[in-house]
Write a structure and sequence with these properties.
Layout: E1 3-8, H1 16-29, E2 34-39, H2 41-48, H3 52-69, E3 76-80, H4 86-95, H5 100-104, H6 107-115, H7 124-127, H8 129-138, E4 144-147, H9 152-168, E5 178-181, H10 209-217, H11 238-246, H12 249-261, H13 266-292, H14 295-323
Parallel strand pairs: 1-2, 2-3, 4-5
Helix pairs in contact: 2-3, 3-13, 4-8, 4-14, 8-9, 10-13, 11-13
Length: 327
């Protein structure tokens, strides 16, 4: 089976956007590929180096959500990045051959600098995170990395570094990864903007049921519907944007027509959405409860994943050291 590699930063608690945008795709991929999924805790330091103690708690919750969302340790390999020191060694070696200009033109570099204005992130670690990311991918010789169409440029620097390494050291040791295009729908937050931890507008996977319900009940709807009998425009409503993801086609049609004709109120519209989101979250809550009460199971899963990942990472590093005459 072709190998797939992806990871998530433990920079906060996971929310519905992470579930729909990544985890649900990961769960599907594990049936058709040899999948490696990891917690990118070193990456979290690029924007949170002043509070490293927070990363441990987020890491534990992240793995809990991996399992609760449906990742199966019998079908995929899960591990924590910092437990495999070969990532750091490979990162150092790749940083020696990566031109500075390549890093400065990475699309997310300027975007994140503008988005994260409340912290000091002017560090080499922040600028050089694409090199570490490249090491994460190439050390497992992954053929595919699941990305949305707008994220393909972010993977290109890994492909360029791979080609440069193979050219300089006249080797074919590194596998040039390809994007595995998956659907990453935009999930709106409770304020109508993209769901994001930095906007504090999220429905988190660890939110209690009553908190989720309250957040959805107070969501922004079509601003034109000031009274119950006012007709609305579904496409202007953030609530309807969530209906497109969590409701059936029939329910979407019913809600849209009811909104346009004012035959359905915003409260009724939200009630349908709440029921559908609960249908998705309830199995996750149950699994979170189970694994949360059995931390030894999680540790066993990570230990097994670490051993497997370390063996492959060391295999790759032997090829890299040999190509660079460091063996």
């Amino acid at each position: 089976m072709d190998r797939v590699l992806s990871g998530m930063q433990p920079s906060g608690y996971l929310h519905l956007g992470n579930l729909v945008g990544a985890l649900q795709s990961w769960v599907k991929l594990q049936d058709d590929y040899e999948c490696f999924y990891f917690v990118a805790d070193w990456h979290a330091l690029t924007t949170n180096f002043a509070n490293p103690e927070m990363i441990k708690g987020y890491t534990e919750d992240l793995v809990l959500n991996f399992l609760a969302a449906g990742l199966d340790p019998e079908k995929c390999t899960m591990f924590v990045q910092s437990r495999i020191l070969q990532h750091a060694e490979f990162h150092v070696l790749l940083s020696m051959i990566t031109p500075l200009g390549w890093l400065e033109r990475v699309p997310t570099y300027k975007e994140k600098k503008e988005e994260i204005g409340d912290r000091d992130i002017d560090s080499y670690g922040f600028l050089g995170y694409p090199v570490l990311q490249s090491a994460d991918i190439m050390i497992y010789r992954a053929r595919y990395v699941p990305v949305g169409i707008d994220q393909v440029p972010h993977l290109e620097i890994t492909r360029e570094i791979c080609r440069r390494f193979n050219f300089i050291y006249k080797t074919g040791a590194l596998v040039e990864p390809e994007p595995l295009l998956t659907q990453f729908p935009k999930v709106v937050g409770v304020d109508g903007r993209k769901m994001s931890k930095s906007y504090d507008n999220c429905i988190y996977l660890n939110d209690p049921a009553e908190v989720v319900e309250q957040k959805l009940k107070t969501m922004v709807t079509d601003p034109a519907r000031k009274r119950r009998h006012d007709p609305g425009t579904p496409d202007l409503s953030p609530v309807f944007a969530l209906h497109r993801i969590f409701s059936t086609t029939e329910q979407q049609e019913e809600v849209a027509e009811g909104c346009r004709t004012a035959s359905i109120g915003c409260i009724d519209c939200k009630k349908i959405l709440i029921d559908n989101i609960f249908r998705v979250l309830e199995p996750i809550w149950e699994k979170r409860k189970y694994y949360g009460a059995n931390p030894s199971i999680i540790q066993d899963i990570l230990e097994t994943g670490t051993k497997k990942a370390t063996a492959i990472a060391e295999e790759t590093m032997q090829l890299v050291r040999s190509a660079m005459k460091f063996s």
